[in-house]
Request: fold
Amino acid sequence: MLNQYDQKQVYDATVHACLCAVREGFPHLAIRDIVDPPHEWFDAALARQIAMHLVIREFGWPKRRVVEMEDRSREAINRALRTVDARVAHDRFALHYQTMAERARVLLFLRMTDDEQPYEEVA
Reply:
């Protein structure tokens, strides 16, 4: 059960929703490849950057918190933001990005509301 007052749990749920949404946008990649992109897999690295961009830009998590929680350098996070910001300037990428962003919001909403549903008694 997700404790909405526990920032770590909420952060983890946000990252999970973003990773799942990006995975749907890059169906040829496994989530493990997005989390830790294999060397020279540029599509996996881009997918990782998109996930971090979603966490920061779409869900409003502070960059400092993301750097700390993901154990990444500030430069890596800033590079991810710059890369995705530059690509979002192109309509085709922007449309795909928005699809992933909307999916991440839906997934997080479902996670947050699913845990609030009361348990039904089985007769």
Remarks:
- The chain has a mean pLDDT of 92.
- DSSP finds six helices and no strands in the chain.
- Residues 91-114 form the longest helix (24 residues).
